[in-house]
């Protein structure tokens, strides 16, 4: 595939100017210290959730459960191994995502438009780029005015598909690639609902409505190659608004987590998921668990694909906490949307804190 054709798949603002030497896909890795990455807690899902196994080979299941709580208190993030999700499923999703992302930008935009003028059809899969912030309907918030200028801070170097899991089974696509992608996402969504439910149980007890599986969504991201990776972010520093987020990343790397006043690379490890605590879990746990700051770097030589699963409280359930005024997730989301519109950034839980 020629480069000029290839870059047709990038949103126009992400395409390299025609008069500069073209960047090549490369295997040269950026070298960053791997040292601290090895301190990120690793949790064995199988050991935590299989109480019947009691041999000298396995620790007591409670010990492993305590490791999860400890990781959520100290890091707000952990790696999850032995999660039971078939590696072939993860590989297939990645492969299909790559194919869809490499369609021309205009095709992606038209294909995944949220609704058509002739019907009230709402697609469970929508396409967005330039900002991970979406409106409640799943439509991408347009990049802020001024993002057209190069190196504007608010433009984030990513594009993605937002997938509402609850609506995914209501539709069948004619297009084979898309229909296969839909089926794979549906299967992956079920697997992740299972994991999130178990982890939530282990971290609790919490009110059952504090996490509602029906709210689950997937974000499939592509972070395009970027000529000046030091001047922009794939996703800038943020905390997730979710209860729990579960990320699968490919082998490129770029995710970083903030811990003890420094940024640490969350290097990719094969067949490993990353679990993040979101703002909602921080509030409902009275700040015992911390929603962790993280960000995504972009890369000059390689595109990166990641898949995030996010799950939220039932929309109108009031979250009671000793640290925050009572609020619902709907209140929180409205506040975030308002902050993004007016300030261009999310202030998050701070707005709800007891004064
Ligand atoms: O792509 C990633 O690794 C992380 C994405 C992320 O932080 C998010 O969607 O909130
Ligand atoms: Fe995030």
Please render the helix and strand layout as text.
Elements: H1 3-6, E1 42-44, H2 45-49, H3 61-74, E2 77-81, H4 87-101, H5 105-111, E3 125-129, E4 159-164, H6 176-203, E5 212-223, E6 235-238, E7 244-249, E8 255-259, E9 262-265, E10 273-277, H7 279-284, E11 294-296, E12 304-312, E13 318-319, E14 327-328, H8 329-342
Parallel strand pairs: 1-2
Antiparallel strand pairs: 2-10, 3-4, 4-5, 5-12, 6-11, 7-10, 7-12, 8-9, 8-11, 13-14
The chain binds 2-oxoglutaric acid and fe (ii) ion.
Residues 238, 240, 245, 294 line the site of fe (ii) ion.
* Quaternary assembly: single chain
Uncertain stretches: 146-152
Give the distance, in angstroms, between the N- and C-terminal Cα atoms. Answer: 58 Å
Largest sheet: 8 strands, mixed
- Please give the number of β-strands: 14
Given the helix and strand composition, which structural class is it?
alpha+beta
Please report which band the strand proportion falls in: under 5%, 5-15%, 15-25%, 25-35%, 35-45% or over 45%: 15-25%
Query: Which distinct ligands sit in these coordinates?
Result: 2-oxoglutaric acid, fe (ii) ion
Shape-level CATH architecture: Sandwich
**Anisotropy-based shape:** globular
Number of helices: 8
Name the helicity range. Answer: 25-40%
Name of the CATH class: Mainly Beta
- The CATH topology is what? Jelly Rolls
Give helix and strand order, one letter per element, not per position.
Answer: HEHHEHHEEHEEEEEEHEEEEH
Output mean pLDDT.
87
CATH fourth-tier homologous superfamily: B-lactam Antibiotic, Isopenicillin N Synthase, Chain
């Amino acid at each position: 595939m020629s480069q000029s054709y290839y870059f047709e798949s990038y949103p126009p603002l992400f395409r390299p100017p025609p008069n500069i030497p073209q960047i090549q896909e490369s295997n040269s890795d950026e070298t960053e210290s791997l040292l601290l990455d090895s301190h990120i807690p690793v949790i064995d899902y199988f050991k935590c959730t299989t109480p019947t196994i009691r041999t000298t080979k396995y620790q007591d299941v409670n010990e492993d459960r305590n490791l999860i709580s400890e990781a959520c208190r100290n890091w707000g993030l952990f790696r999850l191994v032995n999660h039971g999700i078939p590696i072939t499923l993860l590989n297939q999703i990645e492969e299909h995502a790559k194919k869809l992302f490499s369609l021309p930008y205009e095709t992606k935009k038209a294909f995944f438009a949220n609704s058509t003028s002739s019907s009230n059809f709402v697609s469970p899969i929508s396409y967005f780029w330039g900002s991970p912030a979406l409106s409640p309907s799943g439509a991408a918030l347009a990049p802020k005015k001024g993002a057209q200028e190069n190196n504007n801070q608010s433009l984030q170097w990513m594009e993605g598909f937002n997938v509402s899991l609850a609506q995914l089974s209501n539709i069948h696509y004619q297009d084979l690639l898309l229909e296969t992608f839909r089926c794979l996402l549906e299967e992956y969504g079920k697997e992740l609902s299972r994991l999130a439910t178990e982890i939530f149980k282990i971290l609790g007890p919490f009110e059952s409505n504090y996490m509602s599986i029906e709210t689950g969504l997937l974000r499939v991201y592509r972070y395009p190659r970027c000529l000046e990776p030091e001047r922009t972010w794939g996703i800038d520093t943020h905390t997730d608004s979710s209860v729990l987020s579960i990320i699968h990343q490919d082998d490129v790397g770029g995710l970083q987590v903030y811990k003890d006043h420094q940024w640490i690379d969350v290097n990719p490890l094969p067949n490993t998921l990353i679990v993040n605590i979101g703002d909602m879990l921080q509030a409902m746990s009275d700040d015992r668990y911390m929603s962790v700051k993280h960000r995504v770097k972009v890369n000059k030589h390689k595109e990166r694909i990641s898949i995030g699963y996010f799950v939220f409280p039932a929309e109108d359930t009031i979250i009671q906490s000793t640290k925050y005024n009572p609020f619902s997730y709907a209140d929180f989301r409205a506040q975030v949307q308002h902050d993004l519109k007016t300030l261009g950034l999310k202030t998050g839980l701070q707005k709800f804190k007891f004064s």
